[in-house]
Amino acid sequence: MRFPRAASILDFMSSSAIEPRIEPATIEDLPQLVQLLVALFSEEADFRPDKVKQEHGLRMILEQPKLGRIFVLRTDHTVIGMVNLLFTISTAEGGPVILMEDVIVHPQHRRQGYGGRLLDHAVAFAREKSFKRITLLTDRISAESQAFFASHGFGFSSMIPMRLVFAADSSPPAS
Questions:
Q1: Number of domains observed in the structure of the chain
Q2: CA distance 83 to 101
Q3: What is the pLDDT of residues 80-120, one digit of tens each?
Q4: Per the domain annotation, does 155 fall within a domain?
Q5: Residues in CB range of 92: below 8 A, 6 or more apart
Q6: Is residue 58 part of a domain?
Q7: What is the CATH number of the domain that holds 139?
Q8: Is position 110 within any domain?
Q9: What's the domain range around 28?
Q10: Residue 80 burial (CB < 10 Å; 0-12/13-18/19+)?
């Protein structure tokens, strides 16, 4: 009687290198996460890449899980995508909600279904933890991004985003 060959560690390593997995980000992922955000903010009209700011914001989330979660898509030790989920309370929904930001897949790995996998993971996480809603902002000029999110069940809101940005080097307006 012949037994099938046992899977070797090399078989396991090569299969894990082929199929990316989604897992919570760790502080060790910080340099790769910053690089992804630099790429993302280089594509968006409203933001400018600033490695120091991006690292500070990511570190705050990673070190304070009550603020949110960052999930990464990785092959072995290389992060190829991420999604950032920030937690808050909605009085309209009467409970916890998520603001989803920083959905990005490295340009070399796009159009392979990885962005959809990240979104599906975020939605499953939100449902499992009984969040009431996920809100996201996408570029107004990017019909491709809007179509991507719509294909995953996100719809347009009649609300429009507005911002008041406080620059570190500006003083408050005179009264």
A1: 1
A2: 6
A3: 999 999 999 999 999 999 999 999 999 889 999 999 999 99
A4: no
A5: none
A6: yes
A7: 3.40.630.30
A8: yes
A9: 20-150
A10: buried
